[in-house]
UniProtKB/TrEMBL annotation:
Residues covered by the Gcp-like domain: 24-314
Family: Belongs to the KAE1 / TsaD family.
Record NCBIfam families: gcp_kae1, T6A_TsaD_YgjD
Name used for this protein in its record: tRNA N6-adenosine threonylcarbamoyltransferase
Length: 344
C-alpha cells in the first residue's frame, strides 16, 4: 500500500510517498524561511497563503520524480493538528479533495505522532516499547510508547517548549529566524566554562520541564556583561558564550530527565524526535546517556527531525494498514492531545 503524506502545520510544506513494501519512495520539502525572515518569526496568515501556492505543485513534482500516476496511490494522509489552524486547513482541504477525487481513503494524522514515528523511516529502526523525547517548536514531551497509538505522557513543558526557548533566546542574542540552528552554530564558538545557567526543575522529582526562565537568565546575563564591554569583538564573544551556556543548560536538562524517565520505566530504548532533535550536542548527549544505561538512542536523520511529509506518509500508512480512514466530515485541530489517539 502506498500513501501520499502532506504536511502543512507550520512553516514547511512537505509531501512524500511511503510504500509498505519498498519504504520511502520520495519526498519534497519547501521551507518558508525566506518568507518569514524579515518578520523574525512565523506569520500565520503568510504561512497559510504560501501553503496554498506550494502544496499542489510540490505534489506534482513528487509524482513526476517518483514516476507514479494517480491510480498508484492507495491513500492520502495529511496533518490534521496540532498546528496553525489556517495552515492545517490548507493541507486538510487539499488532502481530502485529492482522496475524494482519486477514490481512496483519507487519513488525519497527528503531527507529533508523525515526529514520534519518524525514526522508523531509518534502516536501524527502534522496536516498541520505548521512551520518546519529543522536542519541537511547540512541544516538549516525554512519552511512554508501547505501540502505534499507545502513548502515555510521562512529562511535558509547563511553559515554553525547548524549540521555542531556543528561538526566543536566539532573538535576544540578535540572531535571525529560525533561531534554534543559528544559536547552535554560535554556541560552537562559545566558551563552556564562562557562564553556568540553571537546569530548571531537575532538583525535584518528576519529568516535567520549564524553559521560560532560561531566556530571562540569558537576557540578564547579556545586559550585565555587555554593559562592561568596550568593543565589538568582546560583545561577540559574550554572545557566543551565552549561546553555549544556554545550549548546555537545555541539553543537560533534557538529558537528566531522559535518564530519569528511562530508569523509572525500565526502558532500554530512547527515541529522540522533533526539530530540536537535529541539535548535534543533544544527539551526542542522549547517546552517551543511553550507553551509560546499557541501552540505545535512536533519532531520525536531520532532515526528518524538522517538519517533513515523510513522517506524515509513514504515520498515515501505519493507520491505513490498521484499517483506519476518515468519514467525509473533516476539520483541523490546532490543539490535540496525543493520548486521545486510538491504539493500533
Ligand atoms: O519540529 P519542528 O520542525 O516544528 C514544530 O513542530 O514545531 O521544530 C522546529 C523547532 C524550532 O524551534 C527550531 O528552532 C528548532 O526546532 N531547531 C533546533 C535545531 N534545528 C531546529 N533547535 C536547536 N538546535 C537545532 N539544530
Ligand atoms: Zn514539527
Amino acid at each position: 500500500m502506498r500513501v501520499l503524506g502532506i504536511e502543512t502545520s507550520c512553516d514547511e510544506t512537505g509531501v512524500a510517498i511511503y510504500d509498505g513494501e519498498q519504504g520511502l519512495l520520495g519526498h519534497c520539502v519547501h521551507s518558508q524561511i525566506a518568507l518569514h525572515a524579515e518578520y523574525g518569526g512565523v506569520v500565520p496568515e503568510l504561512a497559510s497563503r504560501d501553503h496554498v501556492r506550494k502544496t499542489l505543485p510540490l505534489i506534482g513534482q513528487l509524482l513526476r520524480e517518483t514516476g507514479l500516476g494517480r491510480g498508484e496511490i492507495d491513500a492520502v494522509a495529511y496533518t490534521a493538528g496540532p498546528g496553525l489552524v489556517g495552515a492545517l486547513l490548507v493541507g486538510a482541504a487539499i488532502g481530502r479533495t485529492l482522496a475524494w477525487g482519486w477514490g481512496v481513503p483519507a487519513l488525519a494524522v497527528h503531527h507529533m505522532e508523525g515526529h514520534l514515528l519518524a525514526p522508523m523511516l531509518e534502516a536501524q529502526a527502534p522496536a516498541f516499547p520505548f521512551v520518546a523525547l519529543l522536542v519541537s517548536g511547540g512541544h516538549t514531551q516525554l512519552v511512554q510508547v508501547d505501540g502505534v497509538g499507545r502513548y502515555r505522557m510521562l512529562g511535558e513543558s509547563l511553559d515554553d517548549a525547548a524549540g521555542e526557548a531556543f528561538d526566543k533566546t536566539a532573538k535576544l542574542l540578535g540572531l535571525p529566524y529560525p533561531g534554534g540552528p543559528e544559536l547552535a552554530r554560535l554556541a560552537r564558538q562559545g566558551d563552556p566554562g564562562r557562564f553556568r545557567f540553571p537546569r530548571p526543575m531537575t532538583d525535584r522529582p518528576g519529568l516535567d520541564f520549564s524553559f521560560s526562565g532560561l531566556k530571562t537568565f540569558a537576557l540578564n546575563t547579556l545586559r550585565e556583561v555587555c554593559a562592561a564591554d568596550r568593543d565589538e569583538e568582546a560583545e561577540l564573544r559574550d554572545r557566543a558564550d551565552i549561546a553555549r551556556a544556554f545550549e548546555d543548560a537545555v541539553v543537560d536538562t533534557l538529558a537528566i530527565k531522559c535518564r530519569r524517565a528511562v530508569r523509572e520505566s525500565g526502558a532500554r530504548t530512547l527515541v529522540l524526535a522533533g526539530g530540536v532533535s537535529a541539535n548535534r550536542r543533544l544527539r551526542e548527549r542522549i547517546q552517551e546517556i543511553m550507553a551509560g544505561e546499557g541501552g540505545r538512542a535512536y533519532y531520525p536523520r536531520p532532515e526528518f527531525c524538522t517538519d517533513n511529509g515523510a513522517m506524515i506518509a509513514y504515520a498515515g500508512w501505519q493507520r491505513l494498514r490498521a484499517g483506519e480512514h476518515e468519514a467525509l466530515a473533516f476539520g483541523a485541530r490546532p490543539r490535540w492531545p496525543m493520548e486521545e489517539l486510538a491504539a493500533v
